[in-house]
C-alpha cells in the first residue's frame, strides 16, 4: 500500500516537472521507504504461504469414508465439513475435515447450498498425524454425483512413483 503512495508521489512530481537532485536527502528517504515497503510485502507473502502448510496431515495417506453431513462451514480462509461416520462399534463419531477457501468450491460449481445437513456423502481425506478424528479433505462426492476436489490438498500430496 505504501509503495503505491510513493509511486503516485513520483508521478505527480514528474507531471509538474519537479526533479530531485541526485544526492537529495528526500530522494534517499523515498528509496529507503520503498525498500522497507517491499520487505514488508515480501514477508507478508511468506506468512501467507506458511499459513497454507499441510504439516499436520499425513499427505502420503488417504482414507475414504461413507458419512452423513453434520455441518458445512463456508468461509475464508478455509471452509470445513463435519461428517458423522459410523465407528466399528456402531456408534456415530464426528470427523472434522478442513478444505480450501470458498472460491475453490465455486470454481467447481459447488455453492453453500450444495452441501446440506443430512446428505449422504463419500469423502476422501488425508488424516491428522496426531491420530485425532479429522484431516485435510481431498475429495467429496455429493449425493447428486458431483465431485469436489480440493486443489490445495491435492497439490500438497506427494506424487506417486
The chain-level structural class is alpha+beta
The count of helical stretches stands at 4
Main sheet: strand order: 1-2-3-5-4
Number of beta strands? 6
CATH names the topology of the largest domain as OB fold (Dihydrolipoamide Acetyltransferase, E2P)
Considering DSSP H and I runs of 4 or more, what fraction of the residues is helical?
A: 25-40%
Which CATH top level class of the largest domain fits? Mainly Beta
Mean of the pLDDT scores? 78
Tell me the major beta sheet: 5 strands, mixed, barrel
Outline: elongated
Question: Please, how many domains?
Answer: 2
Q: Strand content of the residues, in percent? A: 25-35%
| Uncertain stretches | 43-51
Q: CA-to-CA gap between the ends?
A: 44 Å
H/E order of the elements? HHEEEHEEEH
The Cα radius of gyration reads 24 Å
CATH architecture of the largest domain: Beta Barrel
Structural overview:
This protein has a five-stranded mixed beta barrel with strand order 1-2-3-5-4. The chain is built from four helices and six strands, in the order ααβββαβββα. It is of the alpha+beta class. The chain folds into two domains: 2-51; 63-156, OB fold (Dihydrolipoamide Acetyltransferase, E2P) (Beta Barrel), CATH 2.40.50. Helices cover 33% and strands 27% of the residues. The longest helix has 27 residues, at 25-51.
